[in-house]
Structure formats: C-alpha cells, structure tokens
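Rotation project, supervised by the postdoc (A.L.). Task for the rotation student: set up a whole-complex structure prediction and record inputs and outputs verbatim in this book. Inputs entered:
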Amino acid sequence: MLKARNLNRGSIFDIVNLIFMSFVILLTLYPFYYVIISSLNEPIDLLNGPVFFFPRKFSLANYSYVLRDERILKAAFITISRTVVGSISAVIFTAAFAYGVSKQRLLGRKFFIGMALVTMYFSGGLIPSYLLISHGLKLQGKFLVFIIPNLFSAFNAFVMMSFFRGISPEIEESARIDGANDLIIFFRLILPVSMPILATITLFNAVFHWNSWFDALLYGGRKLETLQQYLVKSIQSANVNVKASSFVSTLSVSSTSVRFTTMVITAFPIVVAYPFLQRYFVKGIMIGSLKG
Amino acid sequence: MNQATALDAINKKKKKVSLRKTFWDQRYLMILVLPVVLWMLIFNYIPMLGLVISFKEYNPYLGPLEAFVKSPWVGLANFREAFTDKYFLSSLWNTIYYSILNLVIGFPIPIIFAILLNEITRTRFKKFVQTVSYLPHFISWVFVISFIHELLAVDNGLINEILLRLNLTEKAIPFLATPSYVPSIMVVSQVWKTFGWNSIIYIAAITNIDPTMYEAAIIDGANRFDKIRYITLPSIKPTIVIMLIFAIGGMISPNFGLFEQMYLLSNSMIQDATEIVDTYTYKMGIVLSRYSYATAVGLFRSIVAVILLTGANFSSKKLTGESLF
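Outputs recorded:
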C-alpha cells in the first residue's frame, strides 16, 4: 500500500517534469520556428497579423529579394570571410604560443605564461583599446581589424597547452633524430595530432566571429558591414520610424519581412550546424567548465 | 680576492654565452612564441598603460602617441565630474539594479533546471533537452533582440496579437516604448539565452555524485524530494557557492551581454531605463570623443568590481568556508 503510493507520487512527479521539460524545449525552439515561418510568409500578407504555426500564404518572395540585395550579399561575404580567416588564423597563432610554452626548456617560459595570465583578468577597457586600434594602428575601415585584434586568447592557449603536454614525447624525439626542427615538428606533427582540440576551438572562434557586431560598429563603417551589423541597423531604423520604413522601394516586400529573412540567415549556419557538430560543441563546454 | 672576481667574471661570461646559446638552440620555438608576446604587449599591455589617460585630458587632435604623452594631467577631475553627472549616476544605479535582478532571478534557474533534468530517467530525452537548452548560448544577442522587437511590436507583434485576441487588452501595448518593461524584457531574454549554458557546471557536479549514496538513501526509505534535499543539494553546494561568488563579483564588471541587450533595445522613449555604465561609456567615449572621461568611468567601474569580488569572497569564507582565493 505504502509502496504503491510512493510509486504513484513518483510517476506524477515524472509526468509533471516531462511536461515541464517539453515546455522548456518549446520555449527554446519556438523563436527560431516563428522567425522561419514569418520569413516564408507572403510579405504583404504578413502585415495583416503575425503567423503562429504555419505560413498563412507561403511565398519565397523574401528570399528572392534578399538573395538579390547587394548590400546583404556583401555583408554575407564579409561575415563569411572574417569567420573563416579569423577563426583559422587565431587558432594557429594561439596554438603556436601554447606549444612553445608547453616546453619546459623554453627560456622565459614562466614569464610568458604570467604575461598571458594577467590578460585574463585585467584589460584596458573599451576606450584605450579603441584609441589604440583606430588612432594608433590606423586599422579603422580595414578588413584586418576583424582579424588581428582577435588573434590570441589566453584562455584557449592554456586549454591547448594542457593538451600539448599530454602528447607523448617519443613522437617528437624520433622526428628530431630525423633532423626536424621545432617549427617542422609543430606544423607537421603537433597540429595534425591535435585536430580534436583544434577543431573545437576553431568552432568556438567561428561562432564568435559570426556573431560579433560591435567591432563592425566601431571600426567597420559602411564599407565593412557584417550580417549582424546589417540586422542591427535594420532594428534601429525600424525603431526610428515604424510607418515610413514599412515598405522597401519595390513594394513587393516589407522591411519587417526582410528583417525576418535576415534573421533566418544570421542564425541559420549555427542552428543547422549545431546538431551535427554537437559533439564538438559539447567538448568545448567541458573545456569551459573545467576552468570553473 | 682578485682571483675570486676573475672567476666571477668568467662565470658571468660563461652564463651569458650559454644564455645566448640556449636562445639560439631554441630559435624555432621562439619564432612560435615571440610574435604572440609582441601581440600581447600591443593589444593587452598598451591599453592597460592607456588607462593613465583617465587622469589626463586627452587631446585627440595631437597624434595618438603625442596626445598620450603631452596631454595635461588633471588629477581626479574626470572622476569628480562623473559623480556630479546625474546621467552617470542613473546609469550606475541601473547597472546595479539590473545586475541584482539578474542575480536573484537568473542565478537559481540553472540550478533548478539541472536538478529537474537529473530526475528524468529517459536518457535520450534527457540528452535532447540538454542539447536544445545549450543552443541559445551560440546565437547572437542581435538575433535575440531582433526577435524581441518582432515579438513585442505594436503592429503585428506576437504578444500584442495574443493579448488582443484574448481581449486582455483593448489597445496594443507599446512594450518597447515603456521604460517600466525594460527590466522584465532584460531578465527574460537573459534567462532564455543563458539558463542551459549556465546549468552545465551543475549538471557536471550532479553527475559526479556517488550513486551509492542514492541507493543507500532508497534503502533508508527516502523519497525523491528527500534525495534532492539531502543528497543532491548538499553535494553541489560547493559549486553553488563558488558560482555565487563569481556572480556577485562579476555583477558590476563589464558585461558585454548586458551592453548588447541595452544598446540594441534602446530607443529615445526608453533611453533612461536602458542606460547602463557600458552604454554610458560608449556614448561618452566613442560617440562624443570624450576619451579621458570615458576611460575614467570605465576604470572606476573596474575598481568597484574588484571590491565586490573581494567582498563576496571574504564573506563567503567567513560564512561557508568556501572561497576562490
């Protein structure tokens, strides 16, 4: 009797918990779904009221507009370029440092590690960095402004360093006997062996580059507009004047529906890649939580 | 005596030679390391040195290096100005208020989520929920705030449409033009974006609990809630305390997520409510080019952050015995 009651209470809890978790999933995924169905709805029809579950009037007008819009295409090109170039260059640059300081024999090893450690806790803040990058180094309006200031991350360096230390020294020794120097060993041996960790960090770098917009706002200007930055401007112009900006010149699409479509495009690569690359994402999560 | 100095000199010379030799032997390693060291000097240490301009009146019309060296010292004038500026004080107040809100509401949710997740017995469903909950972390704030704009819009906004259809309101509510809605919008979007990611550390802590403890508890007749209360919670308490210290310490420190939210939400109707220290610094420094003043504001905030972290750490050490340092 007592046992039956306990079991019963347990299963009620289970059911409530299951419903609650399903609700959590719904709340997490619905925004993406809502944006997608809104972008797939006929643009003028969307002005009659929001769609809830399915497009009222299915249409690809938004996509054919967006894919012909030069400004968006250019923004996509810049975003993709900075993501690819930025994430790969950063991972190699950071790995080079990490490999160097993973060697006990390195002169000044402790000092270099200390230097990197300090950067994790102290920074000059927004204005001094801005003055350096834009006034001092004159990087304003140059594509490299997205790449160079993001080349190194002390945190990633320490994660890589501990990985490199785990690589068995025998492989290196045999290469050294064959006459390879440290550079050759690093590029030909260490980097290929470390692919799992490098892939994870590249992925996190890529997400960072894809999502960042503030450096585009500070240093990019109109010339180097990224997708996120395009979306930011789109929200802000909608803020300023809702009625006047409701229609894009062609009258076949509205600024709202273009915004939905741009939102789909900005989130698309991440949402689509996420289930497939989940393994790497989760690995990164574990690396992240190790520190905490 | 003479011999000793001679020996010393020889040793010194030897050391110098051997140092040069080791450096030469490691030249390829140095080729890997030194560019990054140079990078850190430029991109991390020069800006730290640049904090000095908060005690100067930086003149942007001089060249960048000249301005840094030649701009006149003004002592604490910039700090004094900040404390007499009511806009700064209100931005400081908003920052503190939003941080406390985020802490009180945002801190417990990942813990509750992790505990409830642990109670799910179907492994595949559990994994699925977990995976889905991390997704918002990887999505940009720009996307989230854009979505909020569409969600809360007066014309054709999802929420207003629902309220109107259910007759809960007669006229669409201008959520994004009403300052009093800003805190709720901020907290809800913050929770949506971070709850899954922030729960990871607790999920990991729960996974590390020895399962025999639960088995023993079942034998002793413990039910589910007993197990949560007497085993799960006490086991993850150290993690909770450490995360709480981090959260309190980080309360007022530069929070890029909060900056993004406020910057993107802001419009002329609600700008008093969306002004936080970061947006104030941005406006003063970047928009108005008042570099010294904005740097001073940022520096002041960092000092307060350090004080908060040390304070949180100290009181936790006294109260619970757990501490970071």
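Student's summary: Chain B has 16 helices and no strands.
Supervisor addendum: The longest helix of chain B spans residues 291-320.
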